[in-house]
Amino acid sequence: MAKDKTITLQQIGSPIRREKSQRATLIGLGLNKMNKQRQLIDTPEVRGMINKVPHLVRIIGE
């Protein structure tokens, strides 16, 4: 079984006063509090979600 590549994200922006879709994207990524980190499998779907909220998240490691 091959190892899947992972990506580590950190939330750096608040979802307050953001569109509902951006808040929902953060929740979909598993981020809901400032400075929370989450390790996810690097898929095109996850990359698309990151591209939707680049001002709210930071990629820490790939």
From TrEMBL:
Cellular component, GO annotation: ribosome
InterPro entries: Ribo_uL30_ferredoxin-like_sf, Ribosomal_uL30_bac-type, Ribosomal_uL30_ferredoxin-like
Annotated keywords: Ribonucleoprotein, Ribosomal protein
Domain Large ribosomal subunit protein uL30-like ferredoxin-like fold residues, every copy: 10-57
Claim: Ribosomal protein is one of the keywords in the record: yes
Subunit and partners: Part of the 50S ribosomal subunit.
NCBIfam families the record matches: rpmD_bact (TIGR01308)
Family listed: Belongs to the universal ribosomal protein uL30 family.
Protein's name in the database: Large ribosomal subunit protein uL30
Species in which this protein is naturally found: Devosia neptuniae
Gene name as annotated: rpmD
